[in-house]
Design brief:
InterPro entries: DUF58
Transmembrane segments: 12-30, 36-53
Keywords: Membrane, Transmembrane, Transmembrane helix
Radius of gyration: 33 Å
CATH topology of the largest domain: Immunoglobulin-like
Largest sheet: 8 strands, mixed
Strand content: 35-45%
Number of helices: 7
Domain DUF58: 214-323
Organism: Cytobacillus mangrovibacter
Low-confidence stretches: 193-208, 392-401
CATH class of the largest domain: Mainly Beta
Mean pLDDT: 83
Length: 401
């Protein structure tokens, strides 16, 4: 059975049963058919009520398919709950759904209870009937909303008590709300001018093993770059064009902790990180992310390896969406040390959040291995990307171009 069942009864139900038995025996004493049929009717109803409540929900099925829907704040969506009843009919039931306040139910359906909403929907289900319940909502803020509990309240025949069916399994629907980006100044200043292997839209360097096509010859072109086959076909001189490459790649390292607690700047920090992710996707910059949230696995913190394109952007936005005030913290210094010793380094290392003397030591070691250290500095309504200022000796870690 998918449902945990418990009853909430009123003492009047027991008194009604005692009264029915008294009337039953009294009918023989007084030889009254009215008392007899009244007592028998009440006893039959009590027996039927008991049988109904004992077997209700035995063949009630909830279609618990995995659903992950993605939204931005203010976008609209809906929970879709499919029920199939192959058992006793559920009459005058009330379905109660509890979910996180990351989203807000529409049409005044919900009632706020601390960090959750409770939605109460009248719902009856006949034998061999299936029904889909839709609960519309609006995405309110960044985060992950899940259905935390689902209960079906079924009243007793006499209206003095109810039976509650509580769904026992984890409901695997969730609404993922992405962060909105916050403007970050100075990002274009750190597009690399060094030769590398990453394809970019603007660079001084070309990959001569990766031709991308031809164009019309101009007098400033080198003679050995003429494509003679294309020139013969086009009846005009054609110059070889190669893919532009540069040494690029950003790793964003986010420290969500400030003095043993989640920083109160977490929303601005995450929104700025989202803007960096959008920019790196547009510029085709390989982008990796480290967040000091403890996870199980070979890498003990949340890490997204370097990648490009829309799929990488989606992975980064999902990672930023799951960060909340209840996340399990992994020490930032240990995360930096693990990155330095075990993970693929990127040419640019961007630090966001608070830092300590120990984390500064590790950042300097990362810098000595060739990475350019940058810092995501937060202001009131925006952020700025700047070269990292060392806290240890008050010196600037210069951009190594």
């Amino acid at each position: 059975m998918e449902w945990k069942k418990y009853s909430i009864e009123d003492n009047y139900l027991s008194l009604t049963g005692v009264l029915a038995l008294f009337l039953f025996f009294a009918s023989f004493y007084f030889q009254s058919l009215i008392l007899f049929f009244t007592a028998v009717t009440i006893l039959i109803l009590i027996f039927a009520n008991s049988y109904y409540l004992k077997h209700i929900g035995e063949h009630l099925h909830f279609d618990n398919d995995s659903q992950k829907n993605r939204f931005f704040p203010e976008e609209k969506g809906e929970w879709m709950l499919l029920f199939v009843n192959k058992g006793l009919p559920i009459m005058k039931g009330s379905l109660r759904i509890y979910f996180d306040d990351i989203i807000t139910p529409m049409d005044g359906l919900g009632e706020k209870r601390l960090t959750q909403y409770e939605v109460n929907i009248p719902l009856s289900l006949s034998y061999n009937q299936q029904k889909t319940v839709k609960i519309p909502f609006t995405a309110r803020k960044r985060g992950v909303a899940k259905i935390r509990k689902m209960e079906w309240h079924i009243p007793h025949f006499f209206g003095i008590g109810e039976t509650v069916l509580e769904y026992k399994r984890l409901i695997i629907q969730e609404a993922l709300v992405y962060p909105l980006p916050t403007p970050v100044e100075n990002m274009s200043s750190f597009l690399s001018e060094r030769s590398g292997e990453t394809f970019v839209s603007h660079s001084l360097y070309e990959d001569y093993l990766s031709p991308s096509g031809t164009r019309d010859y101009v007098y400033s072109d080198s003679f050995n770059r003429i494509n003679w086959k294309a020139s013969a076909r086009m009846q005009t001189l054609q110059t070889k064009v190669f893919d532009l490459v540069a040494e690029t790649g950003w790793n964003l390292s986010i420290n969500i902790v400030d003095s043993h607690a989640i920083t109160n700047q977490i929303e601005q920090l995450i929104s700025s990180a989202a803007e960096l992710a959008y920019f790196s996707t547009k510029q085709n910059i390989p982008f990796s992310v480290c967040i000091n949230i403890r996870v199980a696995g070979a890498i003990p913190f949340y890490y997204i390896p370097a990648g490009t394109g829309k799929e990488q952007l989606q992975r980064v936005l999902e990672a930023l969406a799951i960060v909340d005030q209840h996340s399990s913290i992994f020490p930032y210094e240990k995360m930096l040390s693990f990155y330095d010793r075990h993970l693929s380094a990127q040419p640019f290392f961007i630090h966001g959040g608070k830092s300590t003397a120990r984390s500064e030591e590790i950042l300097n070691m990362i810098s000595k291995r060739g990475a350019t250290l940058l810092e995501l500095q937060l202001n009131e309504n925006k952020a700025v990307l700047k070269p990292k200022q060392s806290l240890m000796k008050g010196v600037m870690v210069h951009d190594k171009k």
